[in-house]
């Protein structure tokens, strides 16, 4: 057997984790709309969706197939908006939203746009299904921070993170989130309860 390991390029590290790795042909649906929708559903839960899209934009792979949940024409439109700057995932995600949802900037409430990219899970979580950020009226919004703001009616202090009891990484349920202020209160309350328990012994 001829050893081609020094001749053939090594596979990209991210591609090993792609949701389509077991059936790559599925991602080339031609112009058949049901097959295009089916291919895009593969990308929805893909852990390397953004890496795949960034690679397609960087290498100019904008003529065939579905990559990063985008058709070739959609990738070309995103590439035009970014003008060669593909390294920042937030900028790429914002450009994607601008291409896929151009009406977002006009007349729609922030809550409606936010909920459009969520789904309720049977076990009580609110799962984020969109990209890492989304665009609304020309500004870029982070899902967890937006959920916090819509529920609390105030801007978050510091980073918004899931509470320790929430196991779902993509969860944006406002009751499963806390900002820096709420984290400090929770930690202080736990410390106080621990001290009271120690004193009671």
Structure description:
The chain has helices spanning 33-44, 49-59, 72-82, 89-100, 110-115, 143-152, 180-200; strands at 118-120, 126-128, 134-136, 139-141, 161-162, 177-178. By secondary structure, it is mainly α. Strand 3 and strand 4 form a beta hairpin. It is elongated, with a radius of gyration of 21 Å. Mean pLDDT is 84; it is low at 1-11.
Characteristic key phrases:
201 residues; mainly alpha; two-stranded antiparallel sheet; 41% helix; elongated; disordered N terminus
Secondary structure elements and pairings:
Blueprint: H1 33-44, H2 49-59, H3 72-82, H4 89-100, H5 110-115, E1 118-120, E2 126-128, E3 134-136, E4 139-141, H6 143-152, E5 161-162, E6 177-178, H7 180-200
Antiparallel strand pairs: 1-2, 3-4, 5-6
Helical residue percent?
40-55%
> pLDDT average, as an integer?
84
The strands making up the biggest β-sheet line up spatially as 1-2
Shape field:
elongated
> Helix/strand/pairing class, anyone?
mainly alpha
Radius of gyration: 21 Å
Q: Characterize the quaternary organization of these chains.
A: single chain
Largest sheet, strands/sense/barrel: 2 strands, antiparallel
User: How far apart are the termini?
Assistant: 73 Å
Count of DSSP helices? Answer: 7
Order of helices and strands: HHHHHEEEEHEEH
Beta-strand residue fraction: 5-15%
The overall strand count is 6
Low-confidence stretches: 1-11
């Amino acid at each position: 057997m001829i050893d081609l390991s020094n001749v053939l390029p090594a596979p990209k590290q991210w591609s090993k984790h792609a949701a389509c790795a077991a059936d790559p042909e599925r991602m080339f649906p031609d112009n058949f709309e049901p097959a295009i929708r089916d291919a895009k559903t593969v990308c929805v839960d893909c852990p390397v969706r953004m890496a795949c899209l960034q690679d397609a934009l960087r290498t100019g792979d904008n003529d065939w197939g579905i990559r990063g949940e985008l058709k070739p024409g959609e990738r070309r439109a995103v590439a035009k908006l970014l003008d060669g700057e593909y390294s920042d995932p937030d900028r790429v995600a914002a450009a994607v939203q601008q291409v896929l949802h151009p009406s977002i900037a006009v007349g729609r409430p922030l809550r409606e746009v936010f909920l459009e990219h969520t789904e309720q899970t049977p076990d009580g979580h609110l799962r984020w299904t969109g990209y890492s950020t989304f665009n609304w009226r020309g500004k870029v919004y982070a899902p967890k921070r937006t959920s916090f703001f819509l529920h609390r009616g105030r801007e978050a202090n510091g980073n918004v993170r899931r509470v320790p009891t929430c196991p779902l990484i993509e969860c944006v349920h406002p009751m499963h989130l806390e900002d820096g202020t709420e984290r400090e209160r929770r930690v202080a309350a736990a410390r106080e309860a621990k001290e009271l328990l120690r004193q009671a012994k």
